[in-house]
Amino acid sequence: MLQLNPEMWVMTPKGEGLAFLVTDYGMDHNKIFTVMLQSGDILKNIRELRADNRKKGSARGAGGTPRSQKQILAIA
Question: pLDDT for 39-51, tens place per residue?
Answer without folding.
Answer: 877 777 666 666 6
